[in-house]
Amino acid sequence: xxxxxxFAGVIFDFDxxxxxxEGIAYDxxxxxxxxxxxxxxxQALMDAGNGLTNAMLLAWLRNEHGxxxxxxxxxxxxxxxxxxxxxxxxxxGAAETLQRLTQAGVPLALATNSGQEEMVFKLGRVxxxxxFADHAYNPSHVDGRxxxxxxxxxxxxxALGLQPQQCLVIEDSLVGVRAAVxxxxxxxxxxxxxxxxxxxxxLLQAGAARIVASHEELQAALGLRG
Length: 226
Hints:
Blueprint: E1 9-12, H1 22-35, H2 42-49, H3 54-65, H4 73-84, H5 94-103, E2 108-111, H6 116-125, H7 129-132, E3 136-137, H8 151-159, E4 167-171, H9 174-183, E5 186-190, H10 199-206, E6 210-212, H11 215-221
Parallel strand pairs: 1-2, 1-4, 2-3, 4-5, 5-6
Helix pairs in contact: 1-4, 5-11
């Protein structure tokens, strides 16, 4: 039995799984904060913010550093991100994974902590809007209950006409893995956009059943490569 035969649908996280935009996003944060006179290192932001919403990251900055954004910060942050983000952000092999799953007739959904406007922008910029059609979801679809709450993955499964237990989630963050596990989904971790050697073990400890290092490895595990 191949991995794909075990699941009726696949739900993908977005950033770090299908697109590699987190570095771009944190560069925008560092630049916008630096403009306001606040110096926090890029790596510190990445370590704290992986998988979080912007609101969650702002809460961390307020609690840990006593920093509150100035008026216009959000506009500056968004401008910096939009200017830097391009179609090349698609993770190598991701488009092929989606194409092969679609050809196999597997229902697909997207579940991301990105805001609605940001999600729509990024899907359009990288050419993935039609892949997910009406099945791209974010916290606005579940009354703002972002990962690590399980609501987003439960909602995505229900929208596909499936039970969470029938779905495989592909995630790259501890926040996302915990959300998927709490929702009742099977979850595999993917580390393709990360360089921390400890991440794989942490994802397994959080509840991931399997770790793949690339989309090629994911395709093989799902029985999609010949």
